[in-house]
Amino acid sequence: MPAIMNPLLFQPPFPMQQILGLGVALFLLALISYFHGAKDVGPVKRIFLVLLRTLVLAGAVLVLCRPMTMGPKPEPVEKPVFTVLVDASASMNTKDEGNGSRIKAVATGLQSAQAAFLQDLGERYQVNFYEFSDEVLPSTFEQVISRQTVKGTKTDIASALFGALNASQGRKHAGVLLITDGRDNAGGDVTRVATHLKSLKVPVWTTGVGSLTETKDLYVTARLNQNFSFARQPAAIKVDLSQTGFKNWYAKVNL
To answer: What confidence score (pLDDT) does residue 2 get?
Structure first.
């Protein structure tokens, strides 16, 4: 199969017709000067001088025409992005992974798989690490494995997935590894985000941490029915009492 030749283009600083016309005019002057002006020069020498002048003139015309070839622009070779999302909410400080906390168990697990992340995956993908709670923050492998405690106020998985996707727009995504205990999940609709990622053909793998036994916990949410109230003015306060880990349990609440 014949090779495809790159097209030859000319970009002269002056119109091509002027350059060619000047070249032809100088060539005719050279012929006239050598065949009519130099009577004392032998015919062989005159022909040789005409050829030499013609070659120099042709080279000058070629340089002025500025020939060039157009080749395909090399596309930058970029590795697909593989994202690792690590939960940094306060519930990851719960000590139910042996004698250590959940975040320390994550650090230990990642450290034991260091070669897999930095070498095996690193050869094929650009591995990006993020820590998330109420916001998504870029991190590094070294920072994640050095975490002893975390201070996030909530676990917003939906925003974390969206944030990781938007952080590398224009790049091909190989997938997302989500490491979380799933506690205190708040924010967007995770199902909706998962459906969106599926439509983009971005797989999500989840790794759960923490004990299967529910931790016993109580939390109270209270809010006024109006934005403000004056001193000694009657006001209604709505209070929600929620719990996890208690079954068939009744509580008496005193305000």
So the answer is: 47
